[in-house]
Specification:
The protein is of the alpha+beta class and 352 residues long. The chain has two domains: 3-69; 85-350, DD-peptidase/beta-lactamase superfamily (Beta-lactamase, 3-Layer(aba) Sandwich). It is built from eleven helices and 14 strands. The protein has helices at 3-43, 45-52, 64-69, 127-137, 166-174, 179-188, 193-206, 228-239, 242-247, 271-274, 321-338, and strands at residues 85-86, 100-105, 111-115, 121-122, 145-147, 163-165, 225-226, 252-257, 262-267, 283-292, 296-304, 310-318, 339-342, 348-350. A five-stranded antiparallel sheet has the order 3-2-12-11-10, with helices on both faces. It has a three-stranded antiparallel sheet with strand order 1-13-14. It has a two-stranded antiparallel ribbon with strand order 4-7.
């Protein structure tokens, strides 16, 4: 007998037993399923299942609860603000006597006019807006008193050794642009001066001011540089804080030095706010000046017309003290007169 035939027969018998075992397992499994189905049918579960899948109760588009759970989703349209439309003509850059200028619509962020808006320049005391933001992060107690620093910096409002509350120093820094006041505040919040300046630069990066560098809290150092485009971001952030916004609306401050037994008065440096520069704006919402010889005359402000349209404007490097205000005024009035706004009521309006 051939050995291969014997091996083949043994393999056939083995396969037969495997088939018998498999059939047995299948019979047992089907029996279990049938018993489970019968139990479910008698308890009403199957009828409930069948009722759920009949066409009469299929989810429909009108069934919003079902739609939200899955299937088609209805999305409400997003109403984005419509940017102002230019209806006049752009004027040449030489129209405005400043090295840098930008005009932006506050509501939409639309750029309405620019002149060297991305060129870096020293910003002088506009720096104090960034210092104010960093000071607020430390939640100062405005009623606490401190002594004015002895740094040898130009200042006509403060004298070293005088004692004032942090609130008085805050107003002196933002209304009268006192250098010693802002430096005293920076030292009073508990950070070393270098750490305070580093936080100013970190804050700039957080706000997207990537072309800005800060080297001291007062703005006296010409190393404090930025661009009109960046300073719009700074102004917008500063005005979103009520402590800064309200301070920038104060027209005058009266201080009293106990050490010298002397009163001191300071006007706001914002001549538009004081009305010393004639303008057609309905409202001056807040502004900050800056000057050192390296920067020329700087000014940034938010202004509004009678219909509530608001503009953020930055002027850098104006040739004279008065021209920083007249350039900002002229640029703002030009924008209000040459752009058309589509208001929420779907009515068309022009500024001023």
């Amino acid at each position: 007998m051939n050995f291969l035939d014997i091996q083949s027969g043994a393999q056939d018998r083995s396969n037969t037993w495997r088939n018998i075992i498999a059939i047995g397992i299948l019979v047992v499994t089907l029996g279990g399923i049938g018993w489970s189905f019968a139990s479910s049918f008698s308890s009403g579960k199957v009828s409930t299942f069948l009722a759920r899948v009949t066409p009469e109760v299929f989810p429909t588009a009108e069934d919003k609860d079902v739609v939200k759970a899955g299937g088609d989703i209805t999305v409400e349209p997003v109403n984005l603000p419509v940017p102002p439309k230019l209806i006049g003509e752009l004027v040449p850059a030489s129209t405005f006597a400043a090295e840098g200028l930008i005009v932006k619509d506050v509501k939409t962020g639309s750029l309405l006019y620019e002149k060297h808006a991305y060129d870096q320049r020293p910003i002088a005391s506009i720096t104090k807006l960034m210092s104010a933001l960093v000071i607020l992060e430390k939640s100062p107690d405005w009623a606490t008193s401190t002594v004015v620093i002895s740094d040898d910096v130009p200042d006509t409002h403060m004298y070293a050794g005088d004692t004032y509350t942090l609130g008085e120093l805050w107003r002196a820094a933002l209304v009268g642009s006192s250098n010693k006041a802002i430096l005293t505040l920076a030292d009073a919040v508990g950070w070393p001066r270098d750490a305070f300046i580093e936080r100013m630069n970190q804050k700039a990066r957080e706000l997207g001011m990537l072309d800005s560098v800060f080297t001291d809290p007062s703005g006296l150092d010409a190393g404090n540089i930025s661009t009109p485009s960046d300073l719009v971001l700074l102004l917008n952030e500063a005005l979103s804080h009520e402590e800064i916004h309200q301070a920038l609306l104060i027209t005058e401050v009266q201080l009293y030095s106990k050490e010298r037994n002397k009163q001191h008065h300071m006007w706001s440096t914002d001549w538009l706010l004081l009305g010393w520069i004639q303008h057609g704006f309905a409202n001056i919402i807040g502004g900050k000046t800056g000057y050192i010889p390296e920067s020329g005359y700087n000014f940034t402000a938010r202004v509004a017309d009678i219909r509530g349209h608001q503009l953020d404007i930055v002027v850098l490097g104006a040739p004279t003290h008065e021209e920083r205000f007249t350039v900002l005024r002229d640029a703002g009035e030009w924008a209000f007169q040459n752009y058309m706004w589509l208001d929420s009521s779907s009515t068309v309006s022009e500024g001023l």
